[in-house]
Amino acid sequence: MTDPFLHLIEPTSHDLGGFKVHRTLPSRPRTMVGPFIFFDQMGPAHFPQGGGIDVRPHPHINLATVTYLFAGAIEHRDSIGSHVVIEPGAVNLMTAGHGISHSERSPASERAVGPELSGIQTWLALPEADEERDPAFEQVTRDRLPVVEASGARARIIMGTLWGATAPTSIYAETIYADIDLAPGGAVPIDAEADERALYVAYGEARLDDQPLVPQTLYILKPGVTGTLRSDAGGRVMLCGGEAFRTPRYVWWNFVSSSRDRIETAKAAWKAGDWAKVPGDDKEYIPIPEVPRTVSHP
Question: d(Cα 3, Cα 265) in Å, to the nearest integer?
Answer without folding.
Answer: 44
